[in-house]
Amino acid sequence: MISKLFAVLLMLTPLLATASTIDDIARLEQAKTDADASAATRTQNGAPTASAQDTAAPPTPAKSVWYQLSDGRRVNVGHWQIVHFVRSDCPYCHRFNPTLKSVSEQTGIGIFVYSFDGKGDAVFPNVMPVNDRILKDFFAELPQATPTDFVINTQSLVTIPLSQGEMSEEALKQRLDESFALAVRLGVL
Question: Structure pTM?
Fold first, then answer.
């Protein structure tokens, strides 16, 4: 009963993240794009053929990523990402991270990872360290537990708490479904 109440409270307390979080997400996404462009400028033998700057395409809008809700509706979640908080020494994170990565790959929803100790793990080796501003933005009304996840719209900064603690793939998908259904009801999807 208490866990259901907590889940309902999490789902009904949207938070607004600051631009610093979006800037961090944009920097990581740009690094991925730069790495892809750099790799594309090499020939089969690995020699550079052009600079990444010469071949870089202009930024393109986020692609459509369609997510099907349990009620049959399809929603475009192309501007949404999961923000995932971990600690490198958290056993719950070590067990949950492969589940989260699998769900991300199945749904096409990206993951941005913050670490309370600044270290990643085998599943998510590239992390951003948590700072005071991030703590204030995301954990003003929640305990600093790991793992903790939010879904955030990278355009509007609407942030919806997703989960705290380890959970099964089915439970995570249900929470995503509930979160996006809430976003549709609130008119922010």
Answer: 0.69
- 112-166 pLDDT per residue, tens: 999 999 999 999 999 999 999 999 999 999 999 999 999 999 988 999 999 999 9
Q: What is the third-level CATH fold of 2-28+64-186?
A: Glutaredoxin (3.40.30)
Strand 66-68 to 158-164 pairing: unpaired
Cβ atoms of residues 103 and 170 within 8 Å? no
Task: Report DSSP letters for 15-42, one per residue.
Answer: EE--HHHHHHHHHHHHHHHHHHHHHHTB
If DSSP codes are grouped into helix, strand and coil, which group holds residue 178?
Answer: helix
Domain layout of the chain by residue ranges: 2-28+64-186
Alpha carbon distance 25, 80 (integer Å) = 11
Residue pair 11/160 in contact (Cβ under 8 Å)? The answer is yes
Q: How far apart, in whole angstroms, are the C-alpha atoms of residue 156 and residue 179?
A: 15
Closest CA to 149 of 95, 93, 189: 93
In terms of DSSP bridges, do strands 148-153 and 158-164 run parallel, antiparallel, or are they unpaired? Answer: antiparallel
Hey, how many other C-beta atoms are within 10 angstroms of the C-beta on 180?
Answer: 23
**Which of 97, 77, 66, 84 has the alpha carbon at shortest distance from 21?**
84
Q: Tell me the CA distances in angstroms from 89 to 42, 105, 124, 160, one per residue in order.
A: 38, 24, 13, 26
